[in-house]
Amino acid sequence: MTVVSPLPHAMRPVISGRVGNIEVIPLPGVMGAEIRGLDLRRLDDHSFRILHRAYLDHLLVLLRGQQLRDGDMVAVARRFGEFELPPVTAEQVAHRGTHPEITVVSNVRVNDAPIGELGDGEVIWHSDYSFREIIAGMRMLHALEVPPAGEGANTEFRNMYATYDALPDVLKRRIHGATIKHDTAYDTNRRLRRGALPVADPRLGDGPDHPIVSTHPDTGCNSLFLGRRPRHYVNGCTLDESEALLDALWAHATQPRFGFAHAWRQGDVVLWDNRCTIHRRGAFNPAARRIMHATQVKGHKPFAAADAASRPPHPRACLHGNG
Ligand code: OGA
Ligand code: MN
């Protein structure tokens, strides 16, 4: 059974400003906060409470100038939940060091073999592990080496509480109670996963069904849960109806007013909540080197609360006239 927070998150003010040496500075727009004055290598119970609160309130937290070794990253992530271990590949094992929890995200090649995943091509809009029954919770990326500013390779994020809240009523009514069958065959570089069979008809895939309106287990607020776009299917619709509804939801949810693009600097740590956000990355200059280390924890099986239709919006869903 999943317990939904008894105190709707929307009733509490979001964390912002200075708490001792730590400063929480909301980013402009509808999501994100920068935390200053916190070295993640020295995270303790008190500073974790601030970090975790900022994560739930702002969906994404940025900390600049961090110098984490893989063991430090593992120690931070462990506080957020149980690890979701990445698939084991030869490249990953060779380049992530001794920590199986760490994934390398990179376009760098050594001896003509990639040292990590996702390369330098486009990474389409997605939330992590949305194609599994248990989706990812928190994922963090630490930028070890990044292309010069202006070379692209930014990561864009959207606040899916805000996209839910701003949906026209007619669409909201259509999606309450509806589920999407999430494709498992293709990855976010649009490539067939190892061992997967090609799927032409999205109705025939074998991915999990998740509700489109998803109630967050910690905040109690609703967000849109779309996963990825290609070969997904709204159960019970004709294929044409499903394609039209998914196209409408994606066109709405990816609007820039619902998020921002993060321009990476070396030393950045960005950690985000996959239960209520989506992200993408554009293709970037193949001659530029980009090396990130990543780790993530398990989230939950998405569900919609029985009273989802009457739940208050997340406090960051309606800032700056976006409601
Ligand atoms: C990820 C991801 C995009 C990027 O690591 O989950 O989607 O900017 N990364 O590398
Ligand atoms: Mn991702």
Can I get a quick summary?
This protein has 323 residues and is α+β, with helices and mostly antiparallel strands.
What does this structure look like?
This protein is an alpha+beta fold and 323 residues long. 18% of the residues lie in helices and 25% in strands. It has 6 helices and 20 strands. The strands form 5 sheets. Strands 1-2-3-4-18-10-20-5-8 form a 9-stranded mixed β-sheet, with helices on one face. A 4-stranded antiparallel β-sheet has the order 9-19-11-17. Strands 13-12-16 form a 3-stranded antiparallel β-sheet. It is globular and about 50 Å long. The model has no long low-confidence stretch (mean pLDDT 93). The site of manganese (II) ion (MN) has 3 residues, from loops.
